[in-house]
Automatic annotation (TrEMBL):
Pfam families: Trypsin_2. Keywords: Hydrolase, Protease. It comes from the Bacteria. InterPro entries: Peptidase_S1_PA (IPR009003). This is Serine protease. GO terms for biological process: proteolysis. The lineage of its organism: Bacteria, Pseudomonadati, Pseudomonadota, Gammaproteobacteria, Lysobacterales. GO terms for molecular function: peptidase activity.
Length: 710
């Protein structure tokens, strides 16, 4: 067993203790006893630390010494009390009202008593910091105000130290690249604004002011260490500073030693303890009454590792009311990502499946029979293949089952509906689908140290119908999760035994972008359709659910007597003398790509019928196409067995793993030699070779192949 390093553990505890002290103390205060010796300066912190965590060994003593020296340095420079009072009055929390109604249902009452008092009783979420820079003119970070995009929380507002909340009236200036927004309040508290210093000096003490971690306005000291050009084209320089910054500091003022604003705190460095602020001069010199959306970023889809990087730039007139500004920003934000998606698909069009040489492997592959979907993805060598990592299967009451899988970040579900529910009671009932998925316990809400299962999300707030490139009708349902300002999105495809689902969470600002991504991904999903014969008959009777390839499909069954299936390319009929035919017998269809002169089509290329789910007995008809040149030697050798009717496709019975098997190769009606079909019969246990051949002949006599569209 790996032993824990006790020195490391104490170091972690010490760090958390110091972090919590910094978070909770509020404004820094001037140190008393300025004339004391360095030893005495360390005495009080040392005694406090010893009261919290004992340090009996040398390792701990060294950690304590470092902590005390750091404390002494950090508190060497402070703002005078009158300046602190002015800063406190001019600095506000940015808050958003918590949702009043929760549409979710939980496995048990939420143990809200586990939350801290402030978090439990506050009617608002604290999301950032703002400060006054003029008469009824306030500033925060642009990304703080952008939290309102498609938000499930109340609109952003300001809250002062006494708890009074001020509604934002209008937006006067905004720039996404410089990450700031200037606005006015509906009821101005007549706060004295902070003065600005537009020419700060390097290597001087500074103070970062903000609502650190949502637990009150704090002041942290450090140094103005450097300037660094912004990444895109160096149009301005960011201020780099060493004062600590935490989530919630965004939008707060960065002050010089006299309390004047030199910048707006915006970002934390990912690799070092140097953080970023926008120089206040950049904000003051920005165009008035104008909104600027200028974003350069990389965009990609999970079907390939290629990305596009581009700049989307537009501007719009201000002022606007807060509501109108958010609507405008939603439109601009969503249009940006739509443009990036379009640019990526256009750039990759010549080699985007099913186009290009890299698609040949899938176009020449046999139809997969997986009921948990695969995602067709492009690998680094440019070839496309099906990808899925199967997860768990969750048996549920009344025959229902949820099976999971994923391809990278794309999460798949296969949901088998409960036996007692008829198709008319299940399809197009998204609440039932989501409730079945939630029964696995995959979605929880964390309250303190507990995770409470979400058992229902109610009815979706929005539904979108989408037809993919292969004529499959998808349903996209969006559920709000108000406590997290998040949406759950199911992209579901009805199949005979239930649904296959792509599942995703989207942060509120990303809602529309994620929907567009999911619509694109549906073109790259490969899945077989499966169900009992009874389920198939119900499914085929509902034309609205059917993919294009099954619109004209027929299934005629007389239980205990005859089976007849027909679709565009395969017709299969047999009697109960060949295999049992019952309501719980199963039919599974695999889909492959059929080339034609204009564009490949997705159609049935594998038909498998079993007397019951599970067990080795089955009848199988499969389409096989000659492998492409760059496919594996194994696939080429297998093709030769088909082409030359060699074992196991020679019509001779054999036994494999206690299953009697026999298969025969069939040629379609056209003259091409690169497409073949096979008919297969498997029966558990030892069977007479003559009986197996007779049954196979009966299968072949009831089989018709039409592959002239190839």
């Amino acid at each position: 067993m790996k032993m824990r390093d006790p020195c490391q553990e104490r170091e972690q505890k010490t760090w958390h203790y110091r972090k919590n002290r910094t978070t909770h103390i509020g404004f820094s205060r001037r140190r008393s006893g300025a004339g004391q010796s360095p030893r005495l300066l360390m005495e009080k912190p040392r005694r406090i630390a010893q009261n919290v965590i004992p340090f009996p060994d040398l390792c701990s003593a060294l950690l304590l010494l470092v902590a005390l020296l750091t404390t002494a340095v950090a508190r060497a420079d402070t703002l005078d009390p009158s300046t602190l009072a002015k800063v406190r009055a001019a600095t506000f929390e940015v808050v958003m009202a918590k949702p009043v109604h929760d549409p979710l249902t939980y496995a048990k009452p939420l143990p809200l008593d586990l939350l801290p008092y402030q978090e439990r009783n506050d009617k608002f979420y604290s999301v950032g910091t703002a400060f006054a820079i003029g008469h009824n003119r306030y500033v925060t970070a642009g990304h703080v105000i952008a939290l309102a995009l498609h938000s499930l929380w109340g609109p952003p507002a300001l809250r002062d130290g006494s708890g009074h909340v001020y509604a934002i009236d209008s937006i006067e200036s905004y720039a996404s690249d410089r990450d700031f927004v200037v606005f006015s309040l509906a009821n101005n508290p007549s706060t004295a604004p902070l003065e600005a210093n537009t020419h700060p000096v390097l290597n001087q003490p500074i103070y970062a002011v903000g609502d650190a971690l949502g637990e009150g306005i704090v002041v942290r000291d450090g140094l103005y260490t450097s300037d660094t050009p912004e990444d895109q084209d160096g149009r301005w320089k960011w201020i780099r500073f060493s004062a600590a910054a935490s989530p919630g500091n965004s939008g707060g003022p960065l002050l010089d030693k006299s309390g004047k604003v030199i910048g707006v705190v915006l970002a934390k460095s990912p690799n070092e303890n140097l953080n970023y602020a926008l120089p206040i001069a950049e904000l003051l010199n920005a165009p008035k009454n104008q909104g600027v959306f200028n974003v350069r970023n990389a965009y990609g889809l999970p079907i390939m590792d290629t990305q596009v990087t581009g700049t989307y730039s537009t501007s719009f007139s201000l002022p606007l009311s807060l509501a109108d500004f958010i609507t405008k920003l939603e439109q601009v934000h969503d249009a940006h990502f739509q443009a990036q998606r379009d640019a990526l698909l256009k750039q990759e069009a010549p080699n985007l499946f099913p186009n290009g040489a890299g698609a040949e492997r899938i176009l020449h592959a046999v139809a997969p029979l997986n009921i948990v979907p695969e995602l067709i993805v492009r690998t680094q060598d440019g070839s496309w293949h099906g990808s899925v990592q199967k997860g768990s299967a969750f048996p549920l009451p009344d025959g229902a089952q949820v099976s999971t899988g994923h391809a990278g970040a794309v999460i798949f579900f296969h949901v088998r509906r409960p036996d007692h529910l008829a198709a008319t009671s299940y399809y197009d009932k998204p609440k039932l689908l989501m409730d079945t998925m939630l029964a696995t316990g995959f979605s929880t809400r964390a309250i303190g140290t507990e995770k409470i299962n979400i058992t229902s999300m109610g009815e979706p707030a929005q539904t979108i119908r989408h037809l993919d490139a292969w004529g499959r009708p998808w349903r996209i349902d969006i559920w709000p999760i108000p406590f997290g300002n998040t949406y759950a999105i199911t992209t579901s495809l009805a199949v005979p035994d239930g649904y296959v689902v792509i599942f995703n969470y989207a942060a509120a600002p990303d809602k529309q972008t994620r929907i567009g991504d999911l619509e694109t991904i549906t073109d790259f999903v490969s899945v077989a359709y499966s169900g009992t014969l009874r389920q198939w008959q119900e499914y085929l009777s509902n034309q609205a659910l059917l993919p294009a390839s099954l619109k004209d499909a027929k299934l005629d069954v007389n239980y205990g007597s005859t089976f007849a299936y027909a679709s565009n390319h395969i017709k299969l009929a047999f009697t109960s003398k060949v295999q049992k035919i019952a309501p719980d017998s199963t039919l599974r269809l695999g889909f492959a790509f059929f080339k034609n002169q204009s564009h490949p089509t997705l159609d049935v290329a594998d038909v498998r019928v079993k007397p019951q789910d599970g067990g080795p007995d089955r009848i199988n008809v499969r389409r096989v196409i000659q492998p492409a040149e760059d496919m594996s030697e194994q696939s080429k050798q297998e093709w030769q067995k088909y082409a030359l009717a060699k074992h196991p496709y020679d019509g001779v019975a054999y036994v494999d793993n206690d299953v009697a098997s026999i298969a025969k190769v069939l040629k379609p009606t056209h003259e091409r030699s690169d497409v073949l079909y096979s008919a297969f019969l498997g029966v558990e246990g030892n069977q007479s070779a003559d009986v197996m051949k007779t049954k196979l002949d009966q299968i072949v006599s009831g089989l018709q192949i039409n592959d002239t569209d190839y």
